[in-house]
Protein backbone atom coordinates (compact mmCIF):
# COMPACT_ATOMS: atom_id res chain seq x y z
CA UNK A 1 0.00 0.00 0.00
CA UNK A 2 1.53 3.29 -1.04
CA UNK A 3 0.66 6.36 0.94
CA UNK A 4 -0.69 9.65 -0.33
CA UNK A 5 2.37 11.89 -0.89
CA UNK A 6 1.09 14.58 1.46
CA UNK A 7 0.88 12.05 4.31
CA UNK A 8 4.30 10.41 3.79
CA UNK A 9 6.36 13.12 5.55
CA UNK A 10 4.07 12.90 8.58
CA UNK A 11 4.78 9.20 8.96
CA UNK A 12 8.50 9.93 9.43
CA UNK A 13 7.63 11.77 12.64
CA UNK A 14 5.48 9.04 14.12
CA UNK A 15 7.13 6.51 16.38
CA UNK A 16 6.21 2.84 15.89
CA UNK A 17 3.73 1.43 18.43
CA UNK A 18 2.71 4.93 19.52
CA UNK A 19 -0.78 6.11 20.45
CA UNK A 20 -2.17 8.64 18.03
CA UNK A 21 -5.22 10.86 17.59
CA UNK A 22 -5.99 11.98 14.04
CA UNK A 23 -8.22 15.05 13.91
CA UNK A 24 -10.31 15.19 10.77
CA UNK A 25 -9.19 11.70 9.81
CA UNK A 26 -11.31 11.53 6.62
CA UNK A 27 -11.77 7.96 5.44
CA UNK A 28 -9.05 6.72 7.81
CA UNK A 29 -6.23 6.39 5.24
CA UNK A 30 -3.47 7.64 7.55
CA UNK A 31 -4.54 5.58 10.58
CA UNK A 32 -4.97 2.49 8.43
CA UNK A 33 -1.47 2.90 6.99
CA UNK A 34 0.11 3.60 10.38
CA UNK A 35 -1.59 0.70 12.12
CA UNK A 36 -0.54 -1.72 9.35
CA UNK A 37 3.03 -0.45 8.93
CA UNK A 38 3.98 0.97 12.32
CA UNK A 39 1.76 -0.88 14.78
CA UNK A 40 0.27 2.44 15.81
CA UNK A 41 -2.94 2.43 17.87
CA UNK A 42 -5.36 5.27 18.04
CA UNK A 43 -8.52 7.03 17.07
CA UNK A 44 -9.71 9.35 14.37
CA UNK A 45 -12.08 12.24 14.87
CA UNK A 46 -14.34 12.86 11.88
CA UNK A 47 -17.51 14.85 11.31
CA UNK A 48 -18.65 13.60 7.90
CA UNK A 49 -21.08 10.65 8.27
CA UNK A 50 -19.99 8.93 5.05
CA UNK A 51 -16.33 9.07 6.13
CA UNK A 52 -17.28 7.75 9.57
CA UNK A 53 -18.97 4.75 7.92
CA UNK A 54 -15.86 4.18 5.72
CA UNK A 55 -13.52 4.24 8.73
CA UNK A 56 -15.74 1.75 10.58
CA UNK A 57 -15.90 -0.54 7.54
CA UNK A 58 -12.10 -0.67 7.35
CA UNK A 59 -11.73 -1.36 11.06
CA UNK A 60 -10.41 2.04 12.11
CA UNK A 61 -11.46 3.47 15.46
CA UNK A 62 -13.34 6.63 14.61
CA UNK A 63 -15.30 9.02 16.79
CA UNK A 64 -17.91 11.14 15.08
CA UNK A 65 -17.25 14.58 16.51
CA UNK A 66 -16.31 18.10 15.65
CA UNK A 67 -12.70 19.12 16.38
CA UNK A 68 -13.78 22.25 18.25
CA UNK A 69 -16.25 20.28 20.35
CA UNK A 70 -14.52 16.90 20.64
CA UNK A 71 -10.98 17.72 21.75
CA UNK A 72 -11.73 18.91 25.29
CA UNK A 73 -13.01 15.41 26.16
CA UNK A 74 -9.56 13.87 25.86
CA UNK A 75 -7.32 13.63 28.89
CA UNK A 76 -4.07 15.64 29.10
CA UNK A 77 -1.07 13.82 27.59
CA UNK A 78 -3.20 10.85 26.60
CA UNK A 79 -1.61 10.50 23.14
CA UNK A 80 1.96 10.40 21.82
CA UNK A 81 0.94 12.32 18.72
CA UNK A 82 -2.09 14.38 17.80
CA UNK A 83 -2.29 14.94 14.05
CA UNK A 84 -4.34 17.54 12.22
CA UNK A 85 -3.88 17.71 8.46
CA UNK A 86 -5.22 20.58 6.34
CA UNK A 87 -7.93 21.55 8.81
CA UNK A 88 -6.33 24.43 10.76
CA UNK A 89 -7.56 27.08 8.35
CA UNK A 90 -11.19 25.92 8.65
CA UNK A 91 -11.40 26.14 12.45
CA UNK A 92 -13.22 28.72 14.54
CA UNK A 93 -10.14 29.34 16.73
CA UNK A 94 -6.99 27.73 15.28
CA UNK A 95 -4.84 29.02 18.15
CA UNK A 96 -7.04 27.38 20.78
CA UNK A 97 -7.14 24.16 18.77
CA UNK A 98 -3.33 23.98 18.67
CA UNK A 99 -3.16 24.64 22.40
CA UNK A 100 -5.61 21.75 22.90
CA UNK A 101 -3.61 19.52 20.54
CA UNK A 102 -0.47 20.17 22.60
CA UNK A 103 -2.34 19.50 25.83
CA UNK A 104 -3.77 16.17 24.68
CA UNK A 105 -0.67 15.02 22.76
CA UNK A 106 2.99 14.93 23.71
CA UNK A 107 3.62 16.28 20.24
CA UNK A 108 1.33 17.87 17.69
CA UNK A 109 1.57 17.52 13.93
CA UNK A 110 -0.15 20.31 12.04
CA UNK A 111 -0.29 20.90 8.30
CA UNK A 112 -1.87 23.77 6.37
CA UNK A 113 -1.79 25.49 2.96
CA UNK A 114 0.58 28.47 2.94
CA UNK A 115 -1.24 31.69 2.08
CA UNK A 116 2.11 33.36 1.41
CA UNK A 117 2.80 31.22 -1.66
CA UNK A 118 3.62 33.21 -4.82
CA UNK A 119 0.52 31.93 -6.67
CA UNK A 120 -1.69 33.33 -3.91
CA UNK A 121 0.16 36.65 -3.97
CA UNK A 122 -0.13 36.80 -7.76
CA UNK A 123 -3.89 36.33 -7.48
CA UNK A 124 -4.16 39.19 -5.00
CA UNK A 125 -1.96 41.48 -7.07
CA UNK A 126 -4.39 40.85 -9.93
CA UNK A 127 -7.09 42.13 -7.59
CA UNK A 128 -8.95 38.83 -7.12
CA UNK A 129 -9.18 36.33 -4.26
CA UNK A 130 -6.72 33.62 -5.23
CA UNK A 131 -7.82 30.21 -6.48
CA UNK A 132 -4.80 27.87 -6.58
CA UNK A 133 -4.22 24.11 -6.74
CA UNK A 134 -3.62 24.11 -2.96
CA UNK A 135 -6.61 26.40 -2.31
CA UNK A 136 -9.15 25.42 -4.97
CA UNK A 137 -12.29 26.99 -3.43
CA UNK A 138 -13.68 30.35 -4.42
CA UNK A 139 -14.09 33.09 -1.81
CA UNK A 140 -17.83 32.53 -1.35
CA UNK A 141 -17.82 28.76 -0.98
CA UNK A 142 -14.56 28.17 0.84
CA UNK A 143 -14.51 26.38 4.21
CA UNK A 144 -11.26 28.26 4.95
CA UNK A 145 -11.89 31.10 7.35
CA UNK A 146 -8.47 31.49 9.00
CA UNK A 147 -5.78 31.27 6.36
CA UNK A 148 -2.21 32.09 7.35
CA UNK A 149 1.29 32.18 5.94
CA UNK A 150 4.34 30.22 7.09
CA UNK A 151 5.65 33.39 8.75
CA UNK A 152 2.32 34.02 10.50
CA UNK A 153 2.25 30.48 11.84
CA UNK A 154 5.81 30.60 13.15
CA UNK A 155 5.13 33.97 14.78
CA UNK A 156 2.12 32.47 16.57
CA UNK A 157 4.22 29.51 17.75
CA UNK A 158 6.91 31.90 19.06
CA UNK A 159 4.36 34.06 20.89
CA UNK A 160 2.78 31.04 22.60
CA UNK A 161 6.05 29.32 23.38
CA UNK A 162 5.30 26.26 21.23
CA UNK A 163 8.51 24.58 20.11
CA UNK A 164 8.93 23.70 16.45
CA UNK A 165 10.77 20.37 16.62
CA UNK A 166 10.81 19.91 12.85
CA UNK A 167 9.10 21.20 9.73
CA UNK A 168 8.58 20.24 6.10
CA UNK A 169 7.89 23.02 3.65
CA UNK A 170 6.69 21.45 0.46
CA UNK A 171 6.02 22.54 -3.09
CA UNK A 172 2.93 21.39 -4.93
CA UNK A 173 4.65 18.13 -5.89
CA UNK A 174 5.18 17.58 -2.15
CA UNK A 175 8.91 17.97 -2.50
CA UNK A 176 11.25 20.06 -0.41
CA UNK A 177 13.14 21.94 -3.15
CA UNK A 178 15.97 24.45 -3.01
CA UNK A 179 13.48 27.22 -3.67
CA UNK A 180 11.37 26.54 -0.56
CA UNK A 181 14.57 26.48 1.53
CA UNK A 182 15.74 29.83 0.19
CA UNK A 183 12.38 31.62 0.33
CA UNK A 184 10.07 29.43 2.40
CA UNK A 185 7.21 31.89 2.81
CA UNK A 186 7.11 32.49 -0.95
CA UNK A 187 7.72 29.01 -2.31
CA UNK A 188 5.91 26.68 0.13
CA UNK A 189 2.48 25.41 -0.85
CA UNK A 190 1.93 22.97 2.00
CA UNK A 191 3.56 23.49 5.41
CA UNK A 192 3.97 20.68 7.96
CA UNK A 193 5.05 21.20 11.54
CA UNK A 194 6.04 18.96 14.40
CA UNK A 195 5.27 20.90 17.59
CA UNK A 196 5.71 20.44 21.30
CA UNK A 197 4.32 22.35 24.26
CA UNK A 198 7.04 24.16 26.24
CA UNK A 199 6.31 22.72 29.69
CA UNK A 200 6.56 19.11 28.60
CA UNK A 201 10.25 18.98 27.79
CA UNK B 1 -48.14 -7.65 1.59
CA UNK B 2 -49.32 -10.47 3.86
CA UNK B 3 -47.06 -12.61 6.03
CA UNK B 4 -46.73 -15.40 3.47
CA UNK B 5 -45.58 -12.99 0.78
CA UNK B 6 -43.30 -11.12 3.17
CA UNK B 7 -41.78 -14.32 4.48
CA UNK B 8 -40.71 -15.35 1.02
CA UNK B 9 -39.49 -11.84 0.13
CA UNK B 10 -35.77 -11.17 -0.24
CA UNK B 11 -34.23 -10.27 3.10
CA UNK B 12 -36.72 -12.08 5.33
CA UNK B 13 -35.74 -14.96 7.55
CA UNK B 14 -39.23 -16.32 6.80
CA UNK B 15 -41.17 -18.45 9.24
CA UNK B 16 -39.48 -19.04 12.56
CA UNK B 17 -40.40 -21.29 15.44
CA UNK B 18 -39.48 -20.12 18.93
CA UNK B 19 -37.83 -22.66 21.22
CA UNK B 20 -38.15 -22.96 24.97
CA UNK B 21 -34.74 -23.69 26.49
CA UNK B 22 -34.50 -25.00 30.03
CA UNK B 23 -31.47 -23.83 32.00
CA UNK B 24 -31.06 -26.40 34.75
CA UNK B 25 -28.08 -24.80 36.51
CA UNK B 26 -28.90 -22.63 39.54
CA UNK B 27 -28.68 -18.91 38.90
CA UNK B 28 -27.46 -16.75 41.80
CA UNK B 29 -29.05 -13.28 41.68
CA UNK B 30 -27.82 -9.88 42.85
CA UNK B 31 -30.72 -9.65 45.32
CA UNK B 32 -29.23 -12.61 47.19
CA UNK B 33 -31.70 -15.25 46.07
CA UNK B 34 -30.97 -18.13 43.71
CA UNK B 35 -33.23 -19.48 40.99
CA UNK B 36 -32.79 -23.27 40.93
CA UNK B 37 -33.71 -23.43 37.24
CA UNK B 38 -35.27 -21.19 34.61
CA UNK B 39 -36.56 -21.27 31.09
CA UNK B 40 -35.82 -18.87 28.24
CA UNK B 41 -37.74 -18.38 25.01
CA UNK B 42 -35.34 -18.13 22.10
CA UNK B 43 -35.42 -17.64 18.34
CA UNK B 44 -32.40 -18.25 16.12
CA UNK B 45 -31.79 -17.16 12.54
CA UNK B 46 -29.09 -18.44 10.19
CA UNK B 47 -26.72 -21.36 10.73
CA UNK B 48 -24.08 -21.82 13.39
CA UNK B 49 -20.81 -22.72 11.65
CA UNK B 50 -18.70 -25.73 12.63
CA UNK B 51 -16.27 -23.62 14.66
CA UNK B 52 -19.18 -21.80 16.34
CA UNK B 53 -17.45 -18.52 15.58
CA UNK B 54 -20.25 -16.72 13.71
CA UNK B 55 -22.78 -16.22 16.51
CA UNK B 56 -24.39 -12.90 17.40
CA UNK B 57 -26.54 -12.38 20.49
CA UNK B 58 -29.32 -9.79 20.44
CA UNK B 59 -30.24 -8.22 23.80
CA UNK B 60 -33.68 -6.65 23.87
CA UNK B 61 -34.92 -3.38 25.35
CA UNK B 62 -37.68 -2.76 27.88
CA UNK B 63 -40.64 -4.21 25.97
CA UNK B 64 -38.78 -6.41 23.48
CA UNK B 65 -38.67 -10.18 23.28
CA UNK B 66 -37.21 -13.19 21.45
CA UNK B 67 -39.23 -12.55 18.29
CA UNK B 68 -36.77 -10.20 16.60
CA UNK B 69 -37.19 -11.23 12.95
CA UNK B 70 -39.41 -13.14 10.55
CA UNK B 71 -42.90 -14.47 11.21
CA UNK B 72 -44.21 -17.05 13.67
CA UNK B 73 -47.18 -17.94 11.49
CA UNK B 74 -48.56 -17.23 8.05
CA UNK B 75 -51.29 -15.10 9.67
CA UNK B 76 -48.89 -12.68 11.40
CA UNK B 77 -49.57 -9.08 10.44
CA UNK B 78 -46.15 -7.83 11.51
CA UNK B 79 -42.66 -9.38 11.55
CA UNK B 80 -40.33 -9.44 14.60
CA UNK B 81 -39.30 -6.16 16.21
CA UNK B 82 -35.94 -5.79 14.42
CA UNK B 83 -36.82 -7.42 11.11
CA UNK B 84 -35.41 -4.48 9.12
CA UNK B 85 -31.93 -5.24 10.49
CA UNK B 86 -31.86 -9.07 10.67
CA UNK B 87 -32.11 -11.29 7.59
CA UNK B 88 -30.35 -12.37 4.42
CA UNK B 89 -28.40 -9.40 3.05
CA UNK B 90 -29.43 -7.16 5.95
CA UNK B 91 -26.86 -5.58 8.35
CA UNK B 92 -27.12 -8.64 10.63
CA UNK B 93 -26.77 -10.92 7.64
CA UNK B 94 -28.22 -14.36 8.40
CA UNK B 95 -26.39 -15.86 5.42
CA UNK B 96 -23.17 -15.25 7.34
CA UNK B 97 -24.16 -15.02 11.00
CA UNK B 98 -26.05 -17.22 13.41
CA UNK B 99 -28.26 -14.77 15.28
CA UNK B 100 -29.78 -15.58 18.68
CA UNK B 101 -32.57 -13.51 20.23
CA UNK B 102 -34.12 -14.29 23.60
CA UNK B 103 -36.83 -13.13 25.95
CA UNK B 104 -35.00 -12.17 29.11
CA UNK B 105 -35.56 -13.81 32.44
CA UNK B 106 -38.44 -11.98 34.13
CA UNK B 107 -40.09 -11.35 30.76
CA UNK B 108 -43.67 -12.08 29.86
CA UNK B 109 -43.35 -13.74 26.47
CA UNK B 110 -42.73 -17.26 27.69
CA UNK B 111 -39.50 -17.02 29.66
CA UNK B 112 -39.62 -17.62 33.40
CA UNK B 113 -41.11 -14.50 34.96
CA UNK B 114 -43.65 -13.13 37.42
CA UNK B 115 -46.58 -14.76 35.56
CA UNK B 116 -44.91 -18.21 35.66
CA UNK B 117 -46.39 -20.76 38.08
CA UNK B 118 -44.25 -21.05 41.19
CA UNK B 119 -43.79 -24.83 41.68
CA UNK B 120 -43.82 -24.34 45.46
CA UNK B 121 -47.26 -22.70 45.60
CA UNK B 122 -48.88 -23.78 42.35
CA UNK B 123 -49.76 -20.10 41.73
CA UNK B 124 -48.06 -17.40 39.64
CA UNK B 125 -45.00 -15.88 41.34
CA UNK B 126 -46.39 -12.35 41.09
CA UNK B 127 -44.65 -10.09 43.61
CA UNK B 128 -42.62 -13.04 44.91
CA UNK B 129 -40.61 -13.14 41.69
CA UNK B 130 -37.18 -11.68 42.49
CA UNK B 131 -36.27 -8.22 41.18
CA UNK B 132 -33.46 -8.57 38.66
CA UNK B 133 -30.46 -6.56 37.54
CA UNK B 134 -28.77 -6.26 34.17
CA UNK B 135 -25.97 -8.35 35.66
CA UNK B 136 -28.45 -11.14 36.46
CA UNK B 137 -29.64 -11.15 32.86
CA UNK B 138 -26.08 -11.35 31.60
CA UNK B 139 -25.41 -14.32 33.92
CA UNK B 140 -28.54 -16.01 32.61
CA UNK B 141 -27.49 -15.29 29.02
CA UNK B 142 -24.05 -16.74 29.75
CA UNK B 143 -25.75 -20.01 30.74
CA UNK B 144 -27.72 -19.85 27.49
CA UNK B 145 -24.39 -19.36 25.68
CA UNK B 146 -23.13 -22.58 27.25
CA UNK B 147 -26.31 -24.32 26.11
CA UNK B 148 -25.44 -23.46 22.50
CA UNK B 149 -21.82 -24.53 23.03
CA UNK B 150 -20.63 -21.07 22.02
CA UNK B 151 -17.32 -20.13 23.64
CA UNK B 152 -17.24 -16.59 22.34
CA UNK B 153 -19.86 -14.47 20.57
CA UNK B 154 -18.64 -12.77 17.39
CA UNK B 155 -20.73 -9.85 18.62
CA UNK B 156 -23.36 -8.95 21.17
CA UNK B 157 -25.75 -6.24 20.00
CA UNK B 158 -28.39 -4.27 21.85
CA UNK B 159 -30.26 -0.98 21.90
CA UNK B 160 -31.36 1.04 24.94
CA UNK B 161 -31.67 -1.38 27.89
CA UNK B 162 -30.21 -3.97 25.49
CA UNK B 163 -27.08 -1.80 25.11
CA UNK B 164 -26.67 -1.90 28.90
CA UNK B 165 -26.62 -5.70 28.77
CA UNK B 166 -23.95 -5.51 26.07
CA UNK B 167 -21.74 -3.30 28.26
CA UNK B 168 -22.26 -5.58 31.25
CA UNK B 169 -21.32 -8.61 29.14
CA UNK B 170 -18.08 -6.92 28.07
CA UNK B 171 -17.22 -6.13 31.70
CA UNK B 172 -18.27 -9.44 33.30
CA UNK B 173 -17.25 -11.91 30.57
CA UNK B 174 -14.48 -10.16 28.63
CA UNK B 175 -13.27 -13.33 26.89
CA UNK B 176 -16.74 -14.38 25.74
CA UNK B 177 -17.40 -11.68 23.14
CA UNK B 178 -15.25 -10.21 20.38
CA UNK B 179 -17.42 -7.18 19.63
CA UNK B 180 -19.84 -5.08 21.63
CA UNK B 181 -22.42 -2.98 19.76
CA UNK B 182 -24.09 -0.49 22.11
CA UNK B 183 -26.95 1.45 20.52
CA UNK B 184 -28.92 4.42 21.94
CA UNK B 185 -27.88 3.54 25.48
CA UNK B 186 -26.42 5.16 28.59
CA UNK B 187 -23.81 4.29 31.26
CA UNK B 188 -26.47 4.70 33.95
CA UNK B 189 -29.84 6.41 34.23
CA UNK B 190 -30.15 10.12 34.91
CA UNK B 191 -32.40 11.38 37.70
CA UNK B 192 -34.85 12.40 34.97
CA UNK B 193 -34.88 8.85 33.54
CA UNK B 194 -35.50 7.35 36.99
CA UNK B 195 -38.24 9.92 37.59
CA UNK B 196 -40.09 8.80 34.45
CA UNK B 197 -39.74 5.17 35.55
CA UNK B 198 -41.03 6.01 39.00
CA UNK B 199 -44.17 7.65 37.63
CA UNK B 200 -44.75 4.61 35.40
CA UNK B 201 -44.39 2.32 38.43
CA UNK B 202 -46.68 4.45 40.58
CA UNK B 203 -49.33 4.30 37.86
CA UNK B 204 -49.24 0.49 38.05
CA UNK B 205 -48.82 0.15 41.83
CA UNK B 206 -51.73 2.50 42.57
CA UNK B 207 -54.15 0.76 40.19
CA UNK B 208 -56.76 -0.93 42.45
CA UNK B 209 -56.66 -3.97 40.17
CA UNK B 210 -52.94 -4.46 40.86
CA UNK B 211 -53.69 -6.27 44.15
CA UNK B 212 -50.10 -6.01 45.36
CA UNK B 213 -48.96 -7.87 42.25
CA UNK B 214 -51.32 -10.81 42.80
CA UNK B 215 -53.83 -9.69 40.14
CA UNK B 216 -53.56 -13.09 38.43
CA UNK B 217 -55.30 -14.69 41.42
CA UNK B 218 -58.17 -12.20 41.00
CA UNK B 219 -58.58 -12.80 37.30
CA UNK B 220 -57.92 -9.12 36.47
CA UNK B 221 -55.09 -7.01 35.10
CA UNK B 222 -54.14 -3.49 36.26
CA UNK B 223 -54.86 -2.23 32.79
CA UNK B 224 -55.35 1.44 33.68
CA UNK B 225 -51.96 1.64 35.40
CA UNK B 226 -50.10 -0.29 32.74
CA UNK B 227 -51.74 1.78 30.03
CA UNK B 228 -50.72 5.03 31.72
CA UNK B 229 -47.17 3.75 32.17
CA UNK B 230 -46.92 2.94 28.48
CA UNK B 231 -48.45 6.27 27.42
CA UNK B 232 -45.84 8.09 29.48
CA UNK B 233 -43.07 5.91 28.05
CA UNK B 234 -44.18 6.62 24.51
CA UNK B 235 -43.82 10.37 25.01
CA UNK B 236 -40.21 9.88 26.03
CA UNK B 237 -39.44 7.60 23.06
CA UNK B 238 -40.46 10.31 20.57
CA UNK B 239 -38.94 13.70 19.89
CA UNK B 240 -40.99 16.88 20.19
CA UNK B 241 -40.46 17.48 16.45
CA UNK B 242 -41.63 13.96 15.56
CA UNK B 243 -44.79 14.30 17.62
CA UNK B 244 -45.49 17.68 16.08
CA UNK B 245 -44.96 16.31 12.58
CA UNK B 246 -47.10 13.25 13.26
CA UNK B 247 -50.01 14.81 15.16
CA UNK B 248 -49.66 18.58 15.21
CA UNK B 249 -52.43 19.83 17.48
CA UNK B 250 -55.09 18.54 15.15
CA UNK B 251 -58.54 18.02 16.55
CA UNK B 252 -60.31 14.95 15.24
CA UNK B 253 -63.52 16.97 14.93
CA UNK B 254 -65.03 20.20 16.29
CA UNK B 255 -64.33 20.74 20.03
CA UNK B 256 -66.79 18.89 22.26
CA UNK B 257 -65.71 20.48 25.57
CA UNK B 258 -65.30 17.22 27.45
CA UNK B 259 -62.52 14.68 28.17
CA UNK B 260 -63.14 12.29 25.32
CA UNK B 261 -60.42 11.80 22.75
CA UNK B 262 -60.31 15.01 20.75
CA UNK B 263 -56.71 15.40 19.59
CA UNK B 264 -54.83 13.03 17.32
CA UNK B 265 -52.06 12.60 19.88
CA UNK B 266 -54.56 11.50 22.53
CA UNK B 267 -55.95 8.92 20.20
CA UNK B 268 -52.44 7.64 19.42
CA UNK B 269 -51.40 7.40 23.06
CA UNK B 270 -54.61 5.65 24.11
CA UNK B 271 -54.22 3.15 21.27
CA UNK B 272 -50.55 2.48 22.12
CA UNK B 273 -51.41 2.14 25.80
CA UNK B 274 -54.31 -0.23 25.18
CA UNK B 275 -52.44 -2.48 22.77
CA UNK B 276 -49.61 -2.74 25.29
CA UNK B 277 -52.01 -3.90 28.02
CA UNK B 278 -53.07 -6.75 25.74
CA UNK B 279 -49.53 -8.06 25.34
CA UNK B 280 -47.53 -7.09 28.41
CA UNK B 281 -47.42 -8.05 32.07
CA UNK B 282 -47.52 -5.32 34.73
CA UNK B 283 -45.09 -7.14 37.06
CA UNK B 284 -42.61 -7.55 34.20
CA UNK B 285 -42.91 -3.84 33.45
CA UNK B 286 -42.08 -3.01 37.08
CA UNK B 287 -39.15 -5.42 37.06
CA UNK B 288 -37.73 -4.08 33.78
CA UNK B 289 -37.87 -0.44 34.92
CA UNK B 290 -36.13 -1.38 38.19
CA UNK B 291 -33.36 -3.18 36.27
CA UNK B 292 -32.89 0.00 34.25
CA UNK B 293 -32.71 2.13 37.39
CA UNK B 294 -30.20 -0.18 39.09
CA UNK B 295 -27.84 -0.33 36.12
CA UNK B 296 -24.56 1.43 36.91
CA UNK B 297 -21.42 -0.60 36.14
CA UNK B 298 -19.22 2.21 37.52
CA UNK B 299 -20.72 1.78 41.00
CA UNK B 300 -18.46 -1.19 41.72
CA UNK B 301 -15.41 0.83 40.67
CA UNK B 302 -15.68 3.96 42.85
CA UNK B 303 -17.84 5.55 40.17
CA UNK B 304 -15.04 5.31 37.62
CA UNK B 305 -16.56 3.97 34.43
CA UNK B 306 -13.16 3.74 32.76
CA UNK B 307 -12.03 1.39 35.54
CA UNK B 308 -15.01 -0.86 34.75
CA UNK B 309 -14.12 -0.78 31.07
CA UNK B 310 -10.47 -1.64 31.81
CA UNK B 311 -11.78 -5.17 32.38
CA UNK B 312 -13.17 -5.39 28.84
CA UNK B 313 -11.40 -6.90 25.85
CA UNK B 314 -14.02 -6.47 23.11
CA UNK B 315 -13.98 -3.92 20.34
CA UNK B 316 -16.85 -1.47 20.79
CA UNK B 317 -19.20 0.24 18.39
CA UNK B 318 -21.31 2.92 20.07
CA UNK B 319 -24.21 4.49 18.16
CA UNK B 320 -26.44 7.41 19.20
CA UNK B 321 -29.28 9.31 17.54
CA UNK B 322 -29.41 13.10 17.31
CA UNK B 323 -33.12 13.43 18.21
CA UNK B 324 -33.02 10.95 21.14
CA UNK B 325 -33.55 12.81 24.40
CA UNK B 326 -34.35 9.76 26.55
CA UNK B 327 -30.78 8.43 26.09
CA UNK B 328 -29.18 11.41 24.41
CA UNK B 329 -25.94 11.39 22.36
CA UNK B 330 -24.20 13.02 25.35
CA UNK B 331 -24.78 9.79 27.32
CA UNK B 332 -23.23 7.72 24.55
CA UNK B 333 -20.29 10.12 24.54
CA UNK B 334 -19.74 9.32 28.23
CA UNK B 335 -19.43 5.66 27.28
CA UNK B 336 -17.04 6.51 24.46
CA UNK B 337 -14.89 8.75 26.65
CA UNK B 338 -14.57 6.08 29.33
CA UNK B 339 -13.58 3.51 26.70
CA UNK B 340 -10.98 5.86 25.20
CA UNK B 341 -9.60 6.61 28.67
CA UNK B 342 -9.40 2.86 29.28
CA UNK B 343 -7.49 2.52 26.00
CA UNK B 344 -10.09 0.27 24.37
CA UNK B 345 -10.95 0.03 20.68
CA UNK B 346 -14.10 2.04 20.09
CA UNK B 347 -15.90 3.75 17.24
CA UNK B 348 -18.76 6.17 17.69
CA UNK B 349 -21.37 7.12 15.11
CA UNK B 350 -23.95 9.85 15.64
CA UNK B 351 -26.96 9.23 13.43
CA UNK B 352 -28.90 12.28 12.25
CA UNK B 353 -32.49 11.33 13.05
CA UNK B 354 -36.00 12.70 13.55
CA UNK B 355 -38.05 10.29 15.60
CA UNK B 356 -36.26 10.21 18.96
CA UNK B 357 -35.24 7.18 21.03
CA UNK B 358 -37.32 4.86 18.81
CA UNK B 359 -34.99 5.64 15.90
CA UNK B 360 -32.76 2.74 16.95
CA UNK B 361 -35.46 0.47 15.49
CA UNK B 362 -35.66 2.35 12.19
CA UNK B 363 -33.82 1.51 8.96
CA UNK B 364 -32.00 4.85 8.70
CA UNK B 365 -29.45 4.57 5.84
CA UNK B 366 -26.42 5.98 7.73
CA UNK B 367 -27.25 3.78 10.74
CA UNK B 368 -27.55 0.61 8.69
CA UNK B 369 -24.43 1.50 6.64
CA UNK B 370 -22.44 1.77 9.85
CA UNK B 371 -23.82 -1.53 11.19
CA UNK B 372 -23.33 -3.31 7.88
CA UNK B 373 -19.73 -2.08 7.51
CA UNK B 374 -18.82 -3.05 11.07
CA UNK B 375 -20.41 -6.51 10.90
CA UNK B 376 -19.09 -7.20 7.40
CA UNK B 377 -15.58 -6.83 8.74
CA UNK B 378 -16.31 -9.27 11.56
CA UNK B 379 -17.69 -11.82 9.08
CA UNK B 380 -14.65 -11.36 6.81
CA UNK B 381 -12.39 -12.20 9.76
CA UNK B 382 -13.93 -15.61 10.49
CA UNK B 383 -14.54 -16.38 6.82
CA UNK B 384 -10.84 -15.70 6.09
CA UNK B 385 -10.05 -18.22 8.84
CA UNK B 386 -12.11 -20.76 6.89
CA UNK B 387 -15.05 -20.55 9.28
CA UNK B 388 -17.76 -19.59 6.82
CA UNK B 389 -21.26 -21.00 7.14
CA UNK B 390 -20.74 -23.38 4.21
CA UNK B 391 -17.22 -24.40 5.35
From TrEMBL, chain A:
Name of the protein in its database record: Methionine biosynthesis protein MetW
Regions crossing the membrane: none
InterPro entries, per the entry: Methionine_synth_MetW, SAM-dependent_MTases_sf
NCBIfam families: metW
Organism from which the protein derives: Solimonas marina
Pfam families registered for this protein in UniProt: MetW
Automatic annotation (TrEMBL), chain B:
A GO BP entry: methionine biosynthetic process
Gene Ontology molecular-function annotations: homoserine O-acetyltransferase activity; homoserine O-succinyltransferase activity
Important for acyl-CoA specificity (site feature) positions: 326
EC numbers for this chain: 2.3.1.46
GO CC aspect terms: cytoplasm
One Pfam family of this chain: Abhydrolase_1
Keyword Cytoplasm attached: yes
Domain (AB hydrolase-1): residue spans on this chain: 55-339
Pathway connected to this protein: Amino-acid biosynthesis; L-methionine biosynthesis via de novo pathway; O-succinyl-L-homoserine from L-homoserine: step 1/1
Top-level taxon: Bacteria
Alphabetical UniProt keywords: Acyltransferase, Amino-acid biosynthesis, Cytoplasm, Methionine biosynthesis, Transferase
Active-site feature positions: 160, 324, 357
Compartment(s) where it occurs, according to its Swiss-Prot or TrEMBL record: Cytoplasm
Catalytic reaction(s) noted: L-homoserine + succinyl-CoA = O-succinyl-L-homoserine + CoA
Family, similarity comment: Belongs to the AB hydrolase superfamily. MetX family.
Role this protein plays: Transfers a succinyl group from succinyl-CoA to L-homoserine, forming succinyl-L-homoserine.
Assembly, per entry: Homodimer.
The protein's name: Homoserine O-succinyltransferase
Gene that encodes the chain: metXS
